[in-house]
Amino acid sequence: MGVPGGSRVNLLITLLLMCACIATATVAGAEYAKYRDPKQPLSRRIGDLLGRMTLAEKIGQMSQIEQANATADIIKKYFIGSVVSGAGSVPAANAPPETWVDMVNGMQRGALSTRLGIPILYGIDAVHGVGNVYKATIFPHNVGLGCTRDPKLAKEIGAAIALEVRATGIPYAFAPCAAVCRDPRWGRCYESFSEDPDVVQRMVTAVISGLQGEGSRPGESFVPGGQRKVAACALHFVGDGGTTDGDKQNGTFHELLRVHMPPYYSAVSQGVSTVMVSFTSWHGVKMHANHFLLTEFLKTRLQFKGFVISDWEGIDRITTPAHADYLLSIKLAIMAGIDMVSKLRLTYDSYVVNCEKRPCENNYKCLFQVMIPYTYTEFINGLTKLVQNGHIPMSRIDDAVRRILRVKLTIGLFESPYGSRSLAGELGKKEHRELARESVRRSLVLLKNGKAGDKPLLPLPKNAKGSILVAGSHADDLGSQCGGWTVTWQGVAGNNLTTGTTILGGIRQAVQGHGTDVVYYEKPDAGFMRRNKAHFDYAVVVVGELPYAEAFGDSLNLAIPPPGPSLIWDVCGSVRCVVVLVAGRPLVVEPCLDAVDALVAAWLPGTEGQGVSDVLFGDYGFTGKLARTWFRRVEQLPMNMGDAHYDPLFPFGFGLETQPLKA
After folding, report:
1. Which residues face 446 on adjacent strands?
2. How far is CA 533 from CA 145, 315, 573, 577, in A?
C-alpha cells in the first residue's frame, strides 16, 4: 500500500531532520576528544589519544628527523613526532630568530594537519646557549661554570637559555650535560661541570630548574612555564665521563652508582622531560641496547616518566661496523627501552675536510670517516616490520608513545603548538649578555699570581706608564673563546661566526679613558721582544686550544698547541706577564710555569670576553675554584680527587683570590 503525497513529504522532512541531527552529533563527537581537553586528567588524555592511534601514527611519534629533511608534507605523511636541528643545521646562514620561528611553525602546520593533529616536538642543542643560532648569547661551557660552584647562577643561565631557545620557536633543548668527566683526555670533558659527582649533581639540577621552571613533581615530566620554558634533556646516560677513549666503561656497578649516576637521580627527581642515551658501552653492552640500565634501572627503579631518546644515529652503532644489521639494532634498542630514535640524514664530509686542516700532530685525534646518509624511512619501515612479525610487542610501542605524549602534553604543546615572533627580542638581549659576562668573571680560576719574592701582578693597573702588550692566538678570537657546539658542531676559530666581545676587545674597553696604549701583536718573537720590551709595562698572553667537539678533541698529550709555549717563553722572558689559558680542560703547563708571573684558567668563556678583563683589571676579584684536578703530566691520568696516587700540580678546589680595586 502506498503513502499519501502529503505524508511522504512529512516523512522525508522527518528523515532529513533525523539525518541532520545524527550528522551534527557525529561532528560534535569528532570535535570533542578528551585528549584535546586540558581540563581532563593527564593520564586520561594520554589514554584517549593512544587508543585512537594506528601503528603508523605510533611509530611516527617515535621518529626524530633532521630539519634538512623535514617538510610539512613529510611530517604529515609519516606522522613524524620530532624534528631536530643538529649542530650547524640552520634555516639559512645568519638567520634571525623570526626565520627560525617561521620554519618551525611551517613544519608544525604539517603535523597539525594530520588526522589526530599531534604536534611535533622540535629540539635543538643548547649546552652553553642556543649555539646554532646567529647572535645568540653563548655562555661559558660547563667546565668553567663548575668552578663557580653556584647552582643559583646555573639556574639563571638555564632560564636565559630557555628564553633564547623559545625565541626561535623551539620548545625542546638538549641540555644539560650530566657527565662526570674523570679524564680530561676525553674530547667532551668541557661539557662536564666537574670530576666531582656532587658538583655535577647540584649544577645539573639547577640548570633543569632554569630550563623547565619550578613546580615539577618528583618522577614526573612537567614544564609549568608555558612558552617561556622548554623541555630539558639530561645527557648522556650513563657513565660517558668515565670511559676509556670515550667508548668502553668496565668499572664496577658500585662505581657507576657512586660516581656517574647521582646527577640522574636528581634530574629525574627534578622532573627532567627526557634523557638521551650515551654512545658508550658497559661491560661490552652498548648503552643503546642495555635493557637493565635503561628500563630496569632508569625507568623502573628511578621511576623516570619522560621519554628516552637515542643519540645521533646511536642505534646504528650497536653493531660493528655501524649499521651492519640495522633491523637487529632497531629491535635491541627499542626492547632495551629507547622510546624515540634520532635518525638524521646528513653527511659530515665538511668536518672531515676541517679535520684534515687541523694541527693533528699535537692535540687532535682526526677521524677520517663519513657517516653514510641512511634515511628515517628505514627506521620506520624496519620497526613496522618488527611489530607486525611479533618481534616487538605492541605493549612496548605503547609504552614509548605514552611517554612521548606525556612530554608533549605537559609542556602545553597541544594548547600552544606554534612559536611566537614576539619573543625574538629575547635572543642575545643585554640582560642575558650581562649574565654571561658575570658567569665568565666567576668561572675564572687564578692559578698563580707573582713569582717567588715578587709582588702579585694581578690585578693589573689600567693606567700603565708605557704600553700594554696583548699577544697570542686567542686574544682576538671569538670562535676559540666559544669552543665547540657554537654555530657549527666543531665550532670555528675567528671572528666571523657570531657576535660578541673578544678578550682583546674587553682589555681595550677596560683601559679606555686611562691614557693607556694597547699594542696587539699576535705572534711576537724573541727578536721583537728584545727590541721593544722597554716600551711595555706588562703583557697579557692569551693562548689555548682550537675549537673541537666530541672525538675530534680526544688527546693523548694535552699540550698547549703551538706556537703557545714558545710565545710564552719569548714574551714572559722579557716583561712581566699574565698568561690567560683558553681551553676546555687542564693542559700541560708545568714546564713554563716558572716563566710566567700570573696564570689564569679562562676555560671556554663564550661570547662575553669583557668578563675576563673585568677581573684582570680588578673591577671584580678572582673567586673561581677548580672543579677538576690540574695534573702535572698526562702519564698521571686518570687522576681525581681522593685517588691514592693523587699528586696534582693544582688540586681540586684550588684557586687564588684577589680583592676588587676601589674605584
Report:
1. 600, 656
2. 36, 58, 10, 12
Q: How far is CA 55 from the centre of its chain?
A: 32
List, by residue number, the catalytic residues. 311, 550
Please give the average pLDDT of every successive group of 10 residues along the chain, which has 663 residues. 47 47 42 92 97 98 93 96 92 97 98 98 97 97 98 98 98 98 97 98 98 70 74 96 72 91 97 96 94 98 97 92 95 98 56 37 33 68 97 98 97 96 98 98 98 95 94 98 96 95 98 96 97 97 97 95 97 98 98 97 98 98 98 97 97 98 79
What is residue 78's three-state secondary structure?
A: helix
The whole-angstrom separation of Cα 174 and Cα 89 is 14
Write down the pLDDT at residue 237.
97
Strand partners for 468: 518, 538
Please, are residues 86 and 344 in contact by the beta-carbon 8 Å criterion? yes
Distance, in Å, from the CA atom of 663 to the CA atom of 651, rounded to the nearest integer, reads: 34
- Sequence length of the chain is 663
Tell me which DSSP letter residue 455 carries.
P
Residue 527 CB neighbours (<10 A):
9
Alpha carbons 566 and 578: distance in angstroms, whole number: 15
Distances (CA, A) of 489 to 442, 482, 514: 26, 12, 41
Instruction: List the 598-603 sheet strands across, edge first.
Output: 445-449, 598-603, 577-582, 536-544, 467-471, 517-520
